[in-house]
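INTERNAL AUDIT FORM
Audit reference: QA-55
Scope: verify that the stored structure record matches its stored sequence.
Auditor: D.O.
Record contents follow.
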Amino acid sequence: METTLIENLPEVTALGVIIKAIIILAVISAIAGFGTYIERKVLAFMQRRLGPMHVGPYGLLQIAADGIKLFTKEDIIPQNANKFIFMIAPVITAATAFIALSAVPVFPDFTIPEFIPLLGDTFVPSIASDLNIGVLFVLGMMAAGLYGPLLAGMSQANKWGIIGSARTAIQFLSYEVVTGLSILAPIMLVGSLSFVDFNEAQAGGIGSWLIWQQPVAFVLFLIAGFAETNRTPFDLLEHEAEVVSGYATEYSGMRWGMFFIGEYANMITVAIIASIVFLGGFDAAGDFGWLFIILKIAFFFFLMLWVRASWPHIRPDQLMWLCWKVLMPIAVINILITAIVVMV
């Protein structure tokens, strides 16, 4: 049974797109906040600790307590910092993360009931902006997120911030190369940059998932995704044991929070890309397709937490060695083999 995300659907209006954008901003921000609670609980379970327990039942109200603290904490701008760049850097990080989400399928299509005033009978699409170069757009916006931490560190009169921003440049730029090369092989097989086409190319069920044809590309993409989202063992940008808090050393309050909302939003974006490109997307499950992709996204999110609980940090030189001497050559070889197979 074939599936499609856009076939036989009502016309998408500007109002529907605006509503979708608001939903993405609201829901992903809420998930990012709840993700901090889940992460602390998962890490505590894996390391035989309790995690948040005192604020509300099972510590559930810790999320609200953290939110109140971020919104009410004094927003300090250091005296010798470049104030404009210092203020704009967190906005860049959060904005690029959410703009990237505009071109991936987030939540199912739905139509607002007619009885709701002003908004009734409005179709809200699964993709806020269904681009035929969706993969390229998302990767480009995630790459642009580099400027947030980079400018944040450079705007501070603080050596730890500058060290963190330098690590940002080398890590993000290096692993962007691996991300692009790893996903190029699946693009060659599908012949498109559209997420809809990737979904339809794998509509035959589990046996048609691209992970079976491109296992090497899948592993490379996951490793690069960990680096691009600043997750352990690649969280060198604010490595507390070495650089205090890296590019975020002098940030406080909601500006600090925007960096980490952007980080969690990027984690969700990477999970969505991996689910659609390699694990069949919405499958041929009919009405249950959205449940399946949510479970896939949740698995990748959990995997990132699992790795953080299990793996130690690596040194910057090890990070660069892995990228340029191991991952990049493997990615190039995988592309060459895929090209030969496609041509033959």
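Auditor finding: record pair retrieved intact. Strands lie at 110-111, 123-124.
Action required: none
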